[in-house]
Amino acid sequence: MYTSYRPENWLITNLKCHYFDSLQIRYNHYKTNRIVLKSYTHHLTKKLCCPPTKADLNIVGLQFTGLQYLLMSLAANPRRYVITIIFIGVAMIMLLRLFFLQNFEPKYKILANDIAIYKKVVYPPRGVILDRKGKTLLSNTPIYDLMITPRNVPKTFDTAEFCAALNIDKKTYESILGKVLVRNIDVRQSPFMELLNEEQTARYQENAYKFPGFELVERNIRVYEKPIAGLMLGYIGEVSPEMLKKTRYASYRQGDYTGLSGLELQYEEVLRGQRGVHYLERDKFNRPRDPYKGGELDSQEVSGKQLELYLDMELQEYAEKLMVNKIGSVVAIDPQTGGILAMVSSPTFDPNLLRGKERARNYAHLYREATRPLFNRATQAMYPPGSTIKPFTGLVALNVGAITPSYGYGCRGSYGACSRSIACEHKDAGHAGNFRAALSHSCNSYFCHIFRMTVDFNSFSSVKQGLQVWHDYYKSFAYGRQTGIDIPFEGKGLVPDTNMYNKMYNRSWNSCTIVFVGMGQGELLLTPLQMANGMCIIANKGYYYTPHFVKSIGKNENDSLLRKYHEKHVVLNIPDTTFTIVQQAMQDVVDHGTGAVARIDSMSVCAKTGTAENKAIVNGEVVKMQNHSMFVAFAPRENPRIAIAVAIENAGYGAAWAGPIASLVMEKYLRDSIPTRKKALEEKMLKANLINKYVYTIDSVIRLRDLRIYNAKVEKKRMADSTKRAKELALYKKWVRYKIHTNQKLKSSNNRK
Amino acid sequence: MSTLRKTLFNRIDGVVLLLYILLVTIGIMAIFSVEHRTTDTSIIMMNKSYMRQVVWLGYSLFIGFIIILTDSKFFSSFAFLIYTACIAVLIITIFAGVDVKGSRSWLGIGSFRFQPGEIAKIFTAMALAKFFSLNETNFKKLRDRLIASAIALAPAILILLQKETGLALVYFCFFLVMYREGLPNAILLIGFGAIALVLTSLLINRVTLAILLTVFTILVALLIRQTLKRKIAARIILISAWLFSMLFSQFAVPFVFKHALQKHQIERIYSMIGIDVPDEYNKALAPGEEKKERTNSSEYNVLQSKIAIGSGGLFGKGFLNGTSTKNQFVPEQNTDFIFCAVGEQFGFVGSAVLIILYISLMLRVIYLGERQRSDFTRVYAYCVACILFFHFAVNISMTIGLAPVIGITLPFLSYGGSSLLSFSILIFILVRLDADRQVLIR
């Protein structure tokens, strides 16, 4: 039932008649006697059901300030405020806890990121390497590894389904799991199965969410299409901790792959591309989902650029086939560009061995081979060039004016002008009647003599200046220095200069002392690459481009990295006519001289054979070994397209082994096929085994010596270290003694005070 | 100015309704943020929880509208009747309940399910209010105090029999209402004191606790030194209280833990309060027995929840960027752990705003209660405030590791039809009663 209830009436009637008189009086007392006020307001509340509001009190003429009213109502109904305080107090405790939890416990942020954010590092595919015809030499293929984190595999794991997805039986599963657990602690992720096949991958991916603790990791591995040019293409491997300290590898992290040799190392920055990092959120079941923060933290990967080479895959393969069972190398260069058409260092190996986890083991195997397949003979091996240097001896002699092309020397089978006798292959009179004849017959006497004439030439003050001039010529032919080829670790070769001989012979030497250099023996050492480059110089009549593999980077032929290979190197001003004479002589070598084997139908080929004497030191004794077989050539003479150098160690005459191989390679490149005339020769070359037994003996001797040197070095370092430590210790002891001494002094002086 | 002159809708308390709408909206947004996927083509997807919650909000508002139109005397007149019916339903539930996660607190009719324990809170509150508003009730009498306690605890016991401990504990909040209505201070003090003593003697190092207790006693003695001078009884009570708590925490607890309790019991007690078993109570491990990995699911829940909230920082990760909640790391996150979504996405600032909203609602409800003319409405309002408070305090404390994990929802925010509907009814009845605050309802 509703009453006509009006608060003002109600208040006035109730409040006024009962309490109005006493209210003001009592209120005045509240400061001095709170208990009185409390009992009074209690009473008031009980009578009125609900306490009067401030507005209500205003109506009846009672004026209170806010604080007074609050105190009054607090006293009147304290329990309301007790409950209010409990509410607010609990809320304050929660806020305090939240404040510390959210602002001062960073571990939760780390944990949240750990569990929910999946940092996916995306490695872009490495650049592909193509040959001159666009055929793939080196490419990538994706493979899948199945990784396991044993701790995350639940106890209720459905083994049967897992095995079915991978098509393995339960026994295999258990044995692999056992191995993983033995190898690793169970929190670390480790490979469970590597190189899953397509079917396994597909089936696993469909059911991946059912297998927590397992993760499918995609990675690319390098694939060498054919097992050729391993040393030139190079290989990749994980960066080592030592490499990571270097600035070049600043952007790398443990576990990244990098080129370790060959083109893979030289063009690492180009081939590698740019790693991308994607942040993905993952859910409770480890399934990656949306990109984290919409992908704003991600960095996009940039794939590696492709390299196009001058290398001819077929030619390379053919040359390698020819070099089977021979120790040596073949270098073929296009003289017009400096591009390397083929480069073989024999024995070769399958570069596919040097990838993945097998790399270390296979590398050790290859390293231990006596024939040293990991040694790039084409760029690092240094040979005495033998007779193949004779065109250059002649070139320099002609150019300085020491001889004219018609100069002849009466060789009777040996050269005896210096105190010893140097043998010559030919005895018949007139075989060195002029330059052309001498070169085509490869007369030792003639070239020893003209070399002496060059260095002793009367426009030079002495033999020392003469040799220096000769040395400068050779330097400009890129002999005795690195050519600058675009694979690392190139050998320099050795071209003797005045200083060297001064040291060797204590300044007392003359042109007779060094006469062997004229016929490519003695101190002169060249790499096969330098020999081939020398052929380019003669073929081009006086200039060369730095030999290089790479034609274009990412289809751009003018990449800044390639600029230095477009630079024309002109050798010291030698007129074309001089080159024509030398070329003529070299053509004679093929047409009716020692290099007849290199003849190509209806094409003028220039060549020079070489048979290099060489020695090895075995057990402290100098042993004369079988001659190196050398051959240099270029063709065609008018418009040179290929310059080649072949060196075969300890094989014998240049014309017997190196010559045929060079001619076959040239034929293959220029004519694209081997004529039937040469089939028999080809067969012979393919079958020949020219590796001498003593290679193995010498190798072990060398290795023993290396070991001894290494041990001595280690011992020396150890001794130096211990001496240093002893010195430091002595110094420290001295310092301690000094300290004690001064302290005592101080003490005693203090005592005195 | 008479409030009576206004129409019914003008007499409704807008503040409570506004806070109600705000909280429910925050709840729906929180559920949305947890469930939304970037791959979703449209926001309106009926198979998602947040859309179902919107539908439940529709139902709630409809029922609320009906409640507003109902005569305010209806609630007091039928309070006991509905309460009796409710008790009957609870008894039925014990036997006919659907088994959900080990508890039989759900009644299923077809595909429709509801938890009578949730709804029973409303009717218990009404029954209690009715009891206090009766003319013959004198709460100073022990008999009436016992009756009031029985009204409050009867449903709790029935719910306990349904093995839904968390929900049963809610009914203890009615003691706070009874305190307001005249339960002696001592009971509140003893009650709080006992809980505090048990918790502290488990949580705090013994020596530290001894010092704390002594300091606390000295402080109290200083505050009431006048009383202590005058009354011997006060002195005796203070000293015996100090002695008792010292004995309890220093000797009784260690004795019980070392000699009386089994290993698994100790572990259960400590996992209830969410900390590791201290070394001194760790029973020696049998040889060859590994220290067991803690696989307790409630500990996992709390850890994940703390990770989610803790990683929010000051301003949070931003709306829809909650990596922990979005990716289902926090279990039960739409229902019991919905606070994580707010804590993670809006950080401390967001959480503080939410807590302030709750506290404002509760204080407003108390304010409404205090301005009533009729006892019925006042007691009912206090019941509403206390139920809200208990749910709010226990739920949030549990997500931040301050309280054991008992399945209690966060009012208005948690996903679930029963919960939202019952809290809405609670609030709308209060609003309806408050609209007639000048009328004496008995």
Write the layout of secondary structure elements.
The complex is a heterodimer of chains A (753) and B (442).
Chain A: H1 7-28, H2 34-48, H3 54-59, H4 66-76, H5 78-103, H6 106-116, E1 117-122, E2 129-130, E3 136-148, H7 159-166, H8 170-183, E4 190-196, H9 198-207, E5 214-224, H10 230-233, E6 236-238, H11 241-244, E7 257-259, H12 262-266, H13 268-272, E8 276-282, E9 288-291, E10 307-309, H14 313-322, E11 328-334, E12 339-346, H15 359-368, H16 390-400, E13 414-415, E14 422-423, H17 435-441, H18 444-455, H19 463-476, H20 498-505, H21 528-540, E15 543-545, E16 550-553, E17 568-570, H22 576-592, E18 606-618, E19 621-635, E20 642-648, H23 654-671, H24 679-687, H25 694-752
Parallel strand pairs in A: 2-10
Antiparallel strand pairs in A: 1-8, 2-3, 3-4, 3-5, 6-7, 8-9, 10-16, 11-12, 11-20, 13-14, 15-17, 18-19, 19-20
Helix pairs in contact in A: 1-2, 2-4, 4-5, 14-23, 16-18, 16-22, 17-22
Chain B: H1 8-11, H2 14-35, H3 49-69, H4 72-77, H5 79-96, E1 98-100, E2 103-109, E3 112-114, H6 116-133, H7 142-161, H8 165-170, H9 174-180, H10 185-203, H11 206-223, H12 225-230, H13 232-260, H14 263-273, H15 297-310, H16 323-326, H17 339-370, H18 375-399, H19 417-435
Antiparallel strand pairs in B: 1-2, 2-3
Helix pairs in contact in B: 2-3, 2-17, 2-19, 3-19, 5-6, 5-7, 6-7, 6-18, 6-19, 9-18, 10-13, 11-13, 15-17, 17-18, 18-19
Describe the structure.
The complex is a heterodimer of chains A (753) and B (442). By secondary structure, chain A is of the alpha+beta class. Chain A is built from 25 helices and 20 strands. In chain A, the strands form six sheets. In chain A, strands 2, 3, 4, 5, 10 and 16 form a six-stranded mixed β-sheet that branches. A five-stranded antiparallel β-sheet of chain A has the order 12-11-20-19-18, sandwiched between helices. The N and C termini of chain A lie far apart (106 Å). Among the domains of chain B are: 3-36 and 46-87 and 296-435, no CATH class; 191-281. Chain B has helices at residues 8-11, 14-35, 49-69, 72-77, 79-96, 116-133, 142-161, 165-170, 174-180, 185-203, 206-223, 225-230, 232-260, 263-273, 297-310, 323-326, 339-370, 375-399, 417-435, and strands at 98-100, 103-109, 112-114. In chain B, helix 2 runs antiparallel to helix 17 (339-370) and helix 17 (339-370) packs antiparallel against helix 18. Chains A and B meet through helix 5 and helix 6 of A and helix 9, helix 15, helix 16, helix 17 and helix 18 of B.
